[in-house]
Design a protein that fits this description.
By secondary structure, the protein is mainly alpha-helical. Helices cover about 80% and strands about 0% of the residues. The protein contains eleven helices and no strands. Helix 3 packs parallel to helix 6, helix 4 runs antiparallel to helix 6 and helix 7 packs parallel to helix 9. It is elongated.
Length: about 250
């Protein structure tokens, strides 16, 4: 394949990917599939794969990240969720269009497929960006604490964020644990250590029954918007706190 023609096709594909990221589609799925097929079949899979990675990275760094940073204190979770859904939708479309490249170039070389490549770039450039990560964790923990104190919150915003973190882990809970679950469990332990001391000062006889109510509430809360494996962890931790502070005469 002539080098000039390769450059020509890449420009077309480059523009098509950018339009997909903007939720437009100048070319049909079939047209993009066949052009990508041409590039890969003519031994230019490296250019296609790395070019896609650069496009995705540049889009997230130059367009998505600045918009989120401008809204850290204003509708941050809905903004982040919207950016995530747009990116995920674009990656699903690109996965279908670039399936031939996945099968014949990425997979034989042990590279991430197109969809997972997009997830990792979103994880690295958006969620792991320090200001966004800090704002995300703080917002989630503040909302949960507000609900514990009797306030009304939007459960769905927390559920959406946790689902996103699990998805970005790509078949692993590690990312969810590091970003959210560990800070959540630490905050919860601190909250109920303080609550235990308060309850014991008020009336030690009712300490166990009141803490059991708290455990039930935390179990329900976890079932509504946290990952399913978080619920037994928080219950176990709270039971240990109760046992540690339980008066001898109870």
């Amino acid at each position: 394949m002539d080098e000039r023609y390769v450059k020509y096709i890449w420009i077309i594909l480059n523009n098509a990917v950018q339009e997909i990221q903007k939720e437009n589609a100048a070319l049909s799925h079939e047209e993009i599939y066949h052009k990508a097929y041409e590039v890969v079949m003519n031994k230019h899979g490296f250019r296609m794969y790395n070019g896609l990675r650069e496009l995705l990275t540049d889009h997230l760094k130059q367009q998505v990240r600045p918009e989120l940073l401008e809204n850290l204190n204003l509708n941050f979770l809905p903004q982040l969720h919207g950016a995530w859904i747009k990116h995920q939708t674009a990656m699903l479309m690109l996965r279908d269009m670039l399936g031939f490249m996945d099968r014949t170039y990425a997979e034989p070389r042990g590279l991430d497929n197109v969809y997972n490549l997009g997830l990792k770039i979103f994880r690295d450039e958006i969620i792991d960006f320090v200001d966004i990560k800090t704002a995300l964790v703080k917002k989630l923990l503040d909302m949960i604490n507000e609900e514990r104190l009797g306030g009304k919150i939007n459960d769905l915003e927390i559920k959406n964020a946790c689902t996103m973190l699990i998805t970005l882990g790509i078949n692993s809970r590690y990312f969810y644990e590091q970003i959210f679950e560990i800070p959540f469990l630490l905050q919860t332990a601190d909250f109920y250590e303080t609550e235990s001391h308060k309850l014991l000062k008020e009336n030690s006889i009712n300490y166990v029954s009141k803490m059991k109510c708290h455990i039930t509430n935390e179990s329900i809360r976890a079932g509504i918007y946290l990952h399913k494996d978080t619920e037994p962890r928080i219950v176990k931790m709270l039971e240990e706190i109760v046992e540690k502070h339980k008066p001898d005469n109870v």
